[in-house]
Design a protein that fits this description.
Bound molecules: iron/sulfur cluster
Strand order of the largest sheet: 2-1-3-5-7
Largest sheet: 5 strands, parallel
Shape: globular
Number of strands: 7
CATH superfamily of the largest domain: NADH:ubiquinone oxidoreductase-like, 20kDa subunit
CATH topology of the largest domain: Rossmann fold
Length: about 260
């Protein structure tokens, strides 16, 4: 296959820690295969010489938190056949979106940066990328998992449809034969969190804090009740759950589920 026959791919980062791009770069066993099977047009962490033409697949990391990012995202969408959100910030808004839409954005902004501050680009409340553009596929995680990432890339390159992992963290936790931390009244939100991480935290006796984002089929109302029975207020529970669920999890909490 010549370079011109290979699918043209762009990898972009907006507001986030760049951990998902780093994970792709750090996959030493697979990165040469990826670079060999695709025609990478833009990947700021790997090359400082981007080509901003049409793309077969665009991978977007990070939430949108400035007008400039919003316009760049919309411009990428226009020239991409497939657009994939990678990582918790792009998929759910990330920790920076934990209070999005609560009405207190301006107050927080000027408390942090000071009154009268001048911004290079107009700041926006941090939001997941599907607030502004259509997203074809979601790859959650904080950061994304290597096996899930390369399985998705491989499917896209071969023209088959990627299948999202449909189960909660508890599913993997049970397969790993872990002791359930809820039995010890630990604040674990595995039942309402999308799996795919291999239950990384409970495997080490640590509760899941929800970094893969909300599992849409979770019974949010019942899980809230259970956590309240551990002696926490509803406000405290929601504050903790919002940490990674961003603005998206609030609708599930308010509706009790899907
Ligand atoms: S420890 Fe957490 S993730 Fe594991 S089964 Fe219990 S609630 Fe689910
Ligand atoms: S167990 Fe929960 S917090 Fe830990 S990596 Fe998985 S989704 Fe993230």
């Amino acid at each position: 296959m010549t370079t011109t026959d290979k699918p043209k791919v762009g990898i972009y980062g907006f507001t986030g820690c760049a951990g998902d791009q780093l994970l792709i770069i750090h996959t030493e066993d697979e990165i040469l295969n990826l670079f060999g099977a695709t025609n990478i047009q833009s990947f700021v962490m790997a090359s400082s010489n981007p080509i901003e033409g049409d793309l077969d697949v665009a991978f977007i990391e990070g939430s949108v938190s400035t007008e400039e990012e919003k316009e760049h995202l919309q411009e990428i969408r226009k020239r991409s056949k497939i657009l994939v959100a990678i990582g918790n910030c792009a998929v759910n808004g990330g920790p920076q979106a934990m209070y999005t839409d609560d009405g207190g954005y301006e107050k927080r902004l000027y408390k942090v940066y000071g009154e009268g501050v001048k911004f290079v680009s107009k700041p926006l409340e941090a939001k997941p990328i599907d607030t502004y553009v259509e997203v074809d596929y979601y790859l959650p995680g904080c950061p994304i998992s290597q096996p899930q990432t390369f399985a998705l890339i491989s499917r896209l390159i071969h023209g088959t449809i990627p299948e999202p992992y449909p189960h909660p963290v508890c599913h993997e936790c049970k397969l790993n034969e872990n002791h359930c931390l809820l039995l010890d009244e630990k604040f674990c939100i595995g039942p309402i969190t999308l799996g795919g991480c291999g239950s990384a935290c409970p495997n080490h006796g640590l509760p899941c804090v929800g970094c893969w984002g909300p599992n849409e089929d979770g019974n949010f109302a019942q899980h809230l009740k259970l956590l309240e029975s551990f002696g926490l207020t509803k406000e405290e529970i929601i504050r903790r759950i919002r940490g990674f669920g961003g603005s998206k999890i609030i609708k599930f909490i308010e509706n009790g589920g899907k």
